[in-house]
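Why Gx transporter family protein? Reviewers of the renewal asked for a concrete example.
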Amino acid sequence: MLYHSKIKNLTKVQKMVFISMLIAFALVLGYLERTFVPVMPFPGVKLGLANIITLISLYFLCFREAFLLVILRVTLNSFFTGSFITIWYSLSGGILSLIVMFLLIHYSKDKISIAGISIIGAVSHNIGQLIVVAITTESINVAAAYFPILAFSGIVTGILIGFTVNYLLPYINRIFK
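Here is what the prediction returned.
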């Protein structure tokens, strides 16, 4: 269920507008999550609503464009929140998640559901963050101790994000008909 070929016929300006809209949606989702979702009981645990846009981008854009979207989304989000310390956590998780989901989408050939891809992407995101934790604390034990909490939250949020994306893809696809 790859939609990538659908937007090949867009002009450069149309594609740029589409990517800009995706980034804007991701920033709005991030804002809504920060503002209206209660603080989770563990630091670093959140819904990751902006990952809806990352996963959607992998179905409609090439890897380079989706990568650019993640970099811009994380950078702009850090700029708007004033939280530049967390940019490394977000970038490491976002990039690792993007790579893993891209590989699953392009090489699993319908063997794994969108929810499954989202779950694996969410856990990969957490692993990317824990790599930064291990580097900054100079202790793999700190990261390893926190992994079960993040893995559980990644599974739960991955399911929610996956079902949301599965619902949205046909509607977005209609835009390009």
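The longest helix spans residues 140-175. This is the kind of structural detail the renewal will allow us to pursue systematically.
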